[in-house]
Amino acid sequence: MPLENIRHIVLVLSGKGGVGKSSITTQLALALSLQGKSVGVLDVDLTGPSVPRFFGIEESRVRQAPGGWIPVEVHGKQTLSSKQTYGDTGAQGRAANGAKQESEQHAGPLSCMSLGFILSNRGDAVIWRGPKKTAMVRQFLTDVLWPELDFLLVDTPPGTSDEHISLLETLLKQTAHTTQLAGAVVVTTPQAIAISDVKKELNFCAKTGVRVLGVVENMAGFVCPNCSECCNVFSKGGGQVMAQEFGVPFLGSVPIDPAFVMLIEEGVRPRYPKGTVVEGRVLVEREEGVEDKEGLLVDKYRDCSLAPVFEGFVRKLVEEVEGR
């Protein structure tokens, strides 16, 4: 069975489009990799397959093998530079006067599968009726030859339609044991209109028996590229209130960071104004006129303001899933 090599399957869901599911999926995958986990990402958003773009592997193609498809490798198992890219503002950090600390870091392998690797033209519209979408989702779940994975993250389309029903039906048939389908991370933004739509996704999880591992409130603030402030452009806190209302865990809030956008769009290593601190860590200071594009995505992501935020998220997820 193609899924037998996977320990935990986590769905990334939302009842509304444009809330940043693919961004959250990408960063969860990078954060899990940075904790040494082997990770796969399955993109079943068939009409908007953006995962290849997020990982910078748009030009890659899947390879056929006896029995199915071989997913595209983002990176193999890595030993990253021993130079840590942020300082701790706690007692140890103060003792070192914010100096960069030395510690070796191992990143687990990361691979992806998406319809974007199969389309002959990246700009082609996918104009499919429900049955064809359903068949494609089932094929992704039965024909992809994943390596040994600690986590498979499934990036889903918005809503609760054909793809979601097919996804769950096939997973329940294909998974070897009930704990293999670990649950779902539900993504929202702070606005009331988004919250009202995402509540439907939580109801979907309740009706289908999918465990909600946590709610992530995306776009909760804006990290200014010119100062160390974070402004709540779209307000903040709606996701936490929704999680409390449904009695599910709240993983945390994620601000908009232009440096992360530059990392994904242009491959530029994130840098920040002097004194920028996130999650108790001093981020690397920006040098005017210098754009560093060297290194793997997972290595450059360590310098992003969102990396320590997602480090906290995945620690909670790993404890929740592996502690069952």
UniProtKB/TrEMBL annotation:
The keyword Transmembrane helix does not apply. It holds the Pfam family ParA. Coiled coil: none annotated. Keywords: 4Fe-4S, ATP-binding, Cytoplasm, Iron, Iron-sulfur, Metal-binding, Nucleotide-binding. CDD domains: Mrp_NBP35. GO terms for molecular function: 4 iron, 4 sulfur cluster binding; ATP binding; ATP-dependent FeS chaperone activity; metal ion binding. [4Fe-4S] cluster binds at C224, C227. It is found in: Cytoplasm. It comes from the Eukaryota. ATP binds at G15, K16, G17, G18, V19, G20, K21, S22. The keyword Membrane does not apply. GO terms for biological process: iron-sulfur cluster assembly. One of its GO terms (cellular component) is cytosol. Its main location: cytoplasm. Residues 81-105 are annotated as: Disordered. InterPro entries: Mrp-like_CS, Mrp/NBP35_ATP-bd, NUBP2/Cfd1_eukaryotes, P-loop_NTPase, YlxH/NBP35. Component of the cytosolic iron-sulfur (Fe/S) protein assembly (CIA) machinery. Required for maturation of extramitochondrial Fe-S proteins. The NBP35-CFD1 heterotetramer forms a Fe-S scaffold complex, mediating the de novo assembly of an Fe-S cluster and its transfer to target apoproteins. Belongs to the Mrp/NBP35 ATP-binding proteins family. NUBP2/CFD1 subfamily. This is Cytosolic Fe-S cluster assembly factor cfd1. It comes from Didymosphaeria variabile.
